[in-house]
Amino acid sequence: MRIAFFVNSVEGEAPYYTTTWLALAALARGHEVCYVTPGDFVLRPDDSLLIRATTLKGTKPKKPETLLTALKGEQAKISTLDLHEVQVLFLRNDPSEDADTRPWAVYVGTNFGRLAAARGVLVVNDPDGLSLAQNKLYFQEFPEIIRPTSLISRSIEEIRSFIEDHPGGAILKPLQGSGGKNVFKINSKDEANLNQIFEVASGGGYLIAQNYIPDAVAGDIRLFLLNGRPLERDGVYAAFRRVPAEGDVRSNMHVSGTPEAATVTPEILEIAERLRPKLIEDGMFLVGLDIVGDKVLEANVFTPGGLPEIAALHGVDFSEDIMIALENKVRIQELYRGAIPNRTLAVL
To answer: Does residue 142 belong to any structural domain of this protein?
Structure first.
């Protein structure tokens, strides 16, 4: 089968990205891969949907660095493909990355993803589900018991009042954002630079304030869910602990977070089970949960990363499991001749 990976840009892809490892797993299993970016869709007057895809010529790469060198070099080929030539469209972009510089690109994946699904292409995660998750308001739809206490506002007075009600401190971050950008820990409503923090964090719109969880000092646990259930092979879970650098509240890998092995407890599995109904309803094929104590800080449904770190820690590359799951879905789709809705098929 041919899998198209939708990303922000080919140039921005890196060897340690989970998308890179997924592409390598697809190639290793005999599939074709191509990369698509926000400017690569074409809807013609005859209603045909095409993509200008970056494909590979010659030998199939086997290492992350080799793959990306090929995609960005002379081995790359730009081909115009009808979407009927693609079996899977894997949406792996980060909309918040484009929000400031290319606002037109933010909704391209979900909008054209819907068109692709209507034409019989398996699209994961489901574009209708992803359209509900364009910002952290989506997280408020999960059970209250597994969420930190939160306030969403653009009022600094409301935020001061929230901080006053939580003497243990609060985390302040943009409602639309990812990757640990503009995330701050506020210890008191009288913090000297609160006004400046507010201006920086609210530059993109609304803010979300959450009560600080002391266990976060040891980092969070990133747990992958596949088809709504914890991804696991032979007793090993697709999970790792992200430990923040000293003095930093963020545990994201690209801001100096350190990966460590994590123990997935029955309590963590129970948290995942409580999220499962909503994730299934929304067609969320691959999700990364960030868990601290008995709370989920975030459900990453666009670009959950960490598979390379898990492979290094446990010697298990879960990219193959994800490819096998996609193969099974494509077989089901062919068997039922497209009668099963994409949102249902995405999590079967």
So the answer is: no
Query: Does residue 219 share a domain with residue 171?
Result: no
Q: What is the reported pLDDT for 179?
A: 63
| Three-class secondary structure of residue 91 per DSSP | strand
Dist CA 259 CA 244 (whole Å):
9
Nearest to 274 by CA among 295, 293, 288, 292: 295
Domains contained in the chain, number: 3
In a domain, 130, yes or no: no
Tell me the residue range of the domain where 71 lies: 2-124+323-335
Question: Do 104 and 93 share a structural domain?
Answer: yes
259 lies in a domain?
yes
Q: Does a structural domain hold residue 181?
A: yes
Contacts of 340 (CB under 8 A, 6+ apart): 332, 333, 348
Place of tokens 């484009």: 98
Band of residue 180 on the pLDDT scale cut at 50, 70, 90: low
Q: Exposure string (b/e) for 17-30, b if CB count within 10 Å is 16 or more?
A: bbbbbbbbbbbeee
Look at residue 115 in the predicted model and tell me its pLDDT. 98
Q: Answer for the pair 32, 2: CB distance below 8 angstroms, yes or no.
A: yes
SS3 55: strand
